[in-house]
Amino acid sequence: MNDFTGIKKILEDTSIDLPKEELQKIIDCEVSKPEDEMDTELIEYCLDEWMRLTALEEQSAAQQVHPRFRAKRVLALAAAIIVVFSLAVSASDAIFQIGILDGIVEFYNTHVRIRFDRSDDSAKEYKLLGTELAQELEANGISPVLLPELVLTEAYKITDIKYVDGEILKIATIRFSFATEEGYIQIEKYGNKDLLPSLNLFSGAEFVEKVQVSSIDVLLFKHKTTGEYSIVYQDQMIQYTIATTMTYEATIALATSIM
User: What is the DSSP letter of 174?
Assistant: First the structure.
């Protein structure tokens, strides 16, 4: 019998409200496994339930959950998840490691999650709003922006910019080159702060360091399998990911030039 049979029965009990946090735990546990051991049916079920709850929240933001139902749900799921987690940990290294930076960064055995929903970062100033790039982004509905100033210098070359224009999410992907290296900046602006997601970094990402620019915490990660770096940060309802093949020295210089 599948280890998640008990959890599935709990999920199918429609008389109990389902906390989205517990859904996330189940999904994380599954995706941390080798592909041939994942319960894809369970993942799909959890995603469907997540979407159903999100739709209900959008229809009635003021609707409240009955405390006794929530408590019953959490206790039942917690009991089942403890069993599953103990089985998974016995088969591999710890699935979850301690979080850092007040729980904003969480480490799993296959990925790192940045909990932007736990961050209230807001820039004090935006020094590059008068630049051509910032004005183009504003014309496409993405403003105000915090950009690395170095990308606008002669040493860098912007090779491509693509936009995705949605009602609740606008995305800009800026590709650039630096000497023989390359990278991109992905900017995602959400229409509602409640929609801000967590960000998952794969390829064995490890936390390198934090730098602070314009009162914003900028996090630098290194992907152990590729040797490449990622810079991630958030300002209000805009999330940024910068990925690059550059050296550590060039990457940290890029991060500290954000303004």
Answer: E
Secondary structure element (H or E) that encloses residue 38, with its range: none
Q: List per-residue pLDDT tens for the chain, 259 residues long.
A: 345 555 666 666 655 555 666 777 777 677 666 666 777 777 777 777 766 676 666 555 444 444 444 444 444 444 444 444 333 433 333 344 445 666 778 777 667 778 776 766 788 899 999 999 999 999 999 999 999 999 999 999 999 999 998 888 899 999 999 999 999 999 999 988 777 777 777 656 788 788 888 888 899 998 888 889 999 999 989 999 999 999 999 999 999 999 9
Answer yes or no: do 73 and 176 share one domain. no
Statement to judge: residues 249 and 136 lie in one domain: yes
| Axis crossing angle, helix 40-59 with helix 20-31, rounded to the nearest 10 | 150
Domain assignment of residue 184, given as a range: 113-256
DSSP-derived secondary structure for 48-79: HHHHHHHHHHHH-TT----HHHHHHHHHHHHH
Judgement on whether residues 31 and 139 belong to the same structural domain of the protein: no
Has residue 104 been placed in a domain? no
Q: Whole-angstrom Cα distance, residue 203 to residue 223? A: 5
Predicted structure pTM score: 0.63
